[in-house]
Structures are given as structure tokens and as C-alpha cells.
Amino acid sequence: MTDVTISLESGRDDSREAGFGDYFALLKPRVMSLVVFTAFAGLIVAPGGVHPFVGFFAILCIAIGGGASGALNMWYDSDIDRVMKRTQSRPIPAGKVTREEALGLGLTLSTFAVVMLWLATNWVAAALLAFTIFFYVVVYTMGLKRRTPQNIVIGGAAGAFPPMIGWAAVTGDITLSSVLMFMLIFMWTPPHFWSLALFMNADYDKARVPMLTVTHGKRATRNHILVYTILLAGFSAAMFATPLAGWSYLVVAVVMNALFVKGAIALWRRDETVAEADGYRAEKAFFKLSLAYTFLHFMALMVDKALFSFGFGGPF
């Protein structure tokens, strides 16, 4: 038996050395970018202020914590990552990094991120970051993902905490405004991922992940997308009850929710035969729209904060 065969059995192909890019890929950089952006938005729109260096370090700690969650998720899910076409190129199934290395990296970075955020800001922000990591890894990845079709609904809370953490890093508290930022992402997550599942269903079925499309079918998934999209529009409107929303947010909320609800209705009306025949174009378009939805909502909040600071406009 060759050395390469032995290495493959242990999870790594030693015919090539793992590089920085392989370890960085464990942190799910694309997901981390959303974490950083929404956490930064929460920090910017929070009342009061924070020293730029402290703010930068806080966002860095949140990013590291989010990346640590990704590494721990890949450690635990490496078996199904090998099965799903979408995830087969990840570092562990590709044989670039071992499961043990991913676990060690995830635990080390988690500890570092939480402790340093506590020292740099306050215990509330650190506690929220610690709970976010715990929720994503233990509650979602280990507990829900393989057991219930509501995995995305409940597990979506992990991705919704970053703006609350950014807010708490400045204020040291939790308020209605930060909770509504949380709810924007929490209610957005199901239609976002379910639209992806509509055209990636074969992957989830093959990996035996009980996504709603697998357990209840695509018709039920389309119904759920419509319901959650309407509820999301309600929480988007509720932001007007806070001091955060101004004219920029009004324009974005009206336009994006109109487009999102219209898209959800279009998906709800779709026949599976027609959808499959045209390559799920409407579903893919809705998925792309969902990416713009979150980005523009949080960008509008930051624009309004800047306008308020310069004396233009004001909250509703």
C-alpha cells in the first residue's frame, strides 16, 4: 500500500501540500462576506459611536467567529459534502485538509474570536458571538440539518445574529432595532435557501438531507416560499417603527418587497413540468434577487444613518 493510499484513508491526499487557500476555504469566505457586511451595518447604524480601530477589530472578530463556524460545519458535514455535487470540491472531501485539522482550526478560531471581542468591546457582544457559533454548529449542523425539514427555518437564526452583534459591540445592549435587523435576515433565509433547493433538489435527496423539497415536495416548498416572503415584507415594513429608517430605506423597502413578493407569487404559480423544461430560470432569478434584497436593505440603513449624521432627512 502506498503512502498516498494511506493518506487518502485518513482524509488527505499527501501528493500535494495544503496551502493557505485550502485552510481559508474552510472558513466559507462567501458566507463570511455576508456575516461581515451585516455585522458592519449593525455597528454603523448603532447609536453613539466607537473608535475606528475598535470597530475594525470587532468586525474582524465577528468574521473570524463566522469563519470558525464554517470550519466546524465542514468538519461535521464532510460525509455529506462528499456526496453533494455542490460541495465535493470543499477542502475535506477533496482530500486537501483532514477532518481533525478542520476541527482544530474551528475550535481555536472560535475561542480566539469570542475572547478578543469581549476584551475589545463588551460581554454582550461576545456572548452573542459565542451563542451564534454554538447555534450554527450544535443546534443547526448537528441537531437540525439531518433531522427536520424546518432545518433552514430554525437554523437561519445563526446567520441572523451578526447585525445584533455589531450593534451590541457599540451599545452593549439589545433593542427593538437590533431585533428587527435580526428578523430581516431570519425571515429572508427560508425563501432564499428554498428557492435554491428547488433547482438543487437532487443534491439534497442524494445526501439524504431532509430539505423541504425532499420531504414535502416542491409544491409545498413553493407555498412556503410565498408565505415567508409575505411575512418578510411585514418585518421589512416594521423597521419604520425604529429610528433607523429614512427615505433611502423607504425606497428600497417598497421596491424590493414589491419585486420579491411578485417573484414569490410567480414561483407559487409555476408548474413543475414547466419549471424543469426551462431549466428553473424563474427559481434561479428569484435566488439572485434574494441576494440583492438583503444587501440593499442593510445598505439603505447605512445610507440613512449617514444622511441623518449630516442633517439630511430623519427617521419616520
UniProtKB/TrEMBL annotation:
Its main location: membrane. GO terms for biological process: heme O biosynthetic process. It is an enzyme of class 2 (transferase). GO terms for cellular component: plasma membrane. CDD domains: PT_UbiA_Cox10. The chain crosses the membrane at residues 31-50, 56-76, 102-120, 126-144, 151-170, 176-202, 223-241, 247-268, 289-312. Its EC number is 2.5.1.141. It is found in: Cell membrane. Keywords: Cell membrane, Heme biosynthesis, Membrane, Transferase, Transmembrane, Transmembrane helix. InterPro entries: Protohaem_IX_farnesylTrfase, UbiA_prenyltransferase, UbiA_prenylTrfase_CS, UbiA_sf. It holds the Pfam family UbiA. Pathway: Porphyrin-containing compound metabolism; heme O biosynthesis; heme O from protoheme: step 1/1. Interacts with CtaA. Converts heme B (protoheme IX) to heme O by substitution of the vinyl group on carbon 2 of heme B porphyrin ring with a hydroxyethyl farnesyl side group. HAMAP family: CyoE_CtaB (MF_00154). This is Protoheme IX farnesyltransferase. The gene is ctaB.
